[in-house]
Amino acid sequence: MASVQYGVPRERVKVVREEDVLELGSKTLCFMEAPWLHWPETMFTYLKEDRVLFSCDFFGAHTAFGFYDDELEELMSFAKMYFGEIMMPFRSMGRKALEKVKEKDVKIIAPSHGPIYRNTEKILEAYSKWTKGETKEKVIIMYVTMWKSTEAMVNVIAKILFSEGIEVCLYNLANASIGDIAKDLVDSRGVVLGTPAVLGGMHPLALFGVYLVKALRPSLKYGVVLSSYGWGGGAVKQALEFLSPKKIEVIGTMEVNGPPSAEATEKIIELGKQLAKK
Question: Among 65, 181, 232, 243, whose CB has the most other CB atoms within 10 angstroms?
């Protein structure tokens, strides 16, 4: 990359591998391979004398606020968003990298994005949970609506989940932030997808939602699909085709013609209770 991007002559490049050491006189650099975090050639560099871990993209955050971690109160929210967007698909590699980090006496973690951690325990504890795929009693609801029918269905199940003590994160895909969705996918146990039917399948924005799930590989366990249609359905069938390979247990679906009737609403309430119980 140095040669391709910046024209650095090959003879000026020293290739290092796992556990290689570079002596710089008063300082010693130790190298640790951390592939796919999130590039295939990612490495950590440990500055032995000062106990600083230069972690490349791992432990990063997409923010320029705060030079150190204790200077940014909402840093963990940024860190979680970054993990969801960038590192979540590589959780297994992240767990291996964390084991290497634990073998070092690390005082400071200096990632290539975001603040430097001089209080390392908090971010290490968070990454331990996130890389293991630990989830909470939490449901993320992603939906899009055209004539408010799907929104009405989604609002019913959101209210039931909330009343059952479940944390609910509600996102209208027409205006939701990808980063916020990624952040809440990190530790959600359930997902509700709401979509109208468009030309025999899901609304394009709902397709985008399930594509995020497919690409980011969160640890979702359970799902519900809600859909409304005018002259033809098909959205539920397509949603199941996307969700089934992700090993998400879809505990129920509901497809209605037009706005939800009283009978359909009762069934959605029951789906909400079943999901909350799971």
Answer: 181
